[in-house]
Amino acid sequence: MNLPGEPSQHQNPDQIPGRRGFLKQTGALCLTALALSGCASRAPAGKAPVGRQATAPAPPAPLNGKGAAPVPALRPGARIAIVAPASAAPDASDEAAEWLEARGFVAQVMPASRTRLESPYDYLAGSDADRLADLHAAFAAPDVGAVWCLQGGFGSWRLLDQLDYALLRKHPKPFIGYSDITALHLAMQRHAGFVTFHGPMLGQDLLAGKREPTESNLLAMITGQVGRGSWIAPPQDALPTELVPGVASGHLIGGNLALIAALTGTRNEIDTRDAILFIEDVNEAVPRVDRLLGQLAAAGKFDGVKGLLVGNFTRLRAQMDDAQAQGLLYPLILDQFRSRGIPVLAGWPSGHGDPNLTLPLGARVTLDTGRGALRLDQAVVI
After folding, report:
1. Which of 130, 150, 320, 377 has its CB surrounded by the most CB atoms within 10 Å?
2. Would you say 363 and 378 are in contact if contact means Cβ atoms under 8 Å apart?
3. What is the four-CA torsion angle of 167, 169, 171, 174, rounded to 10 degrees?
4. pLDDT at 58
């Protein structure tokens, strides 16, 4: 999973020469001051996150052959809430707002995304209560069309037992992020039951300039341009590797391998029955990946899997580039999955690599290793 230093560091937007001029030259919309509800700037809090409060367990979302419920499509000109449920990147939130507005959306910067706690909680963007309030406010607001994470890092798991899943079920909308945000994806899949999007984050990916089709793939999916029957395929220069051939269908679930393992045994653990399992990670050495896979196997989490999609594993601490180093993982993956008789496709460009394709978690999909692609078997937005 992410280590200290992964959160993107950005200059103050006012200190970047010519950037606003560039946006105007490329046809960006004129930016107006963000006088939006909940957008007031807040100084970094110095208090520790609030303690856990006991909550009644939410009922698991029932499995069905149709997959998770689609969410309302993002409309042109919609308002998008920028949230930071995990680590801090306070200098990036207003730049992310400009990025969205340059594409015709209205940006709502949620307060905690502009903050960073003091040590020893300086890896968090605001207290648990503040980050939780931002999520609840973003989902509850009728004029917010999508909830988009600024950053990964650490800390999403701290919110899971306090999330109001009934509120989320009442106000479904596209929720976008990955890495540490995997904790929220898993909890929402189990307790809310609608499609969420494992996709690029505003600060960590899009402001960092990850290449196409990172941006276009996401926007096409959440606006409804990629519908039932569509194939999700990587670009020609990022083709995946067929480790075990085959075709299989199931609901797509997963994300960051370390977070999946960390939540095993909790009420928010992954449900892999009838699943196409997706895994990716960063900064995990090969022996640690082996241990994480072994832990999930021992917990029975591979027993009901119909197919495996292996995403980007970057910074494996091997003396070679990421593309070569990923091959070191293939024997470990085959040790766990060859005898299970399920298709395995590896090197899929989603996660911490570049590009970062969006995956609709909870949706029914078909994995075809020969084609090197995923087919959507249901609508993911309506």
Report:
1. 150
2. yes
3. 120
4. 36
185 is catalytic: no
| pLDDT tens per residue, range 296-312 | 999 999 999 999 999 99
Asked whether 39 and 216 are in contact (CB, 8 A), the reply is no
Q: Where are the domains of the chain?
A: 79-376
Name the token pair of 75: 């409309």
Nearest to 160 by CA among 194, 189, 140: 189
Q: Is the dihedral of CA 82, 29, 143, 170 positive or negative?
A: negative
Catalytic residue, chosen from 101, 269, 280, 284, is: 280
Is 79-376 a CATH 1.10.3210.10 domain? no
* Three-state secondary structure call for residue 107: strand
- Token digits for 149? 């994470």
For the entire predicted model, the pTM comes to 0.84
User: Residue 41 is encoded by which pair of tokens?
Assistant: 């700037």
Alpha helices per DSSP H over the chain = 19-25, 93-101, 128-140, 165-170, 182-191, 214-222, 257-262, 286-298, 322-326, 330-337
Catalytic residue list contains 41: no
**Tokens of residue 371, six digits:** 């084609």
Catalytic residue among 179, 191, 269, 350: 179
- Marked catalytic residue, from 191, 198, 251, 352: 352
The β-bridge relationship of strands 144-149 and 79-83 is parallel
Rounded distance, CA 343 to CA 338, Å? 9
242 assigned to active site: no
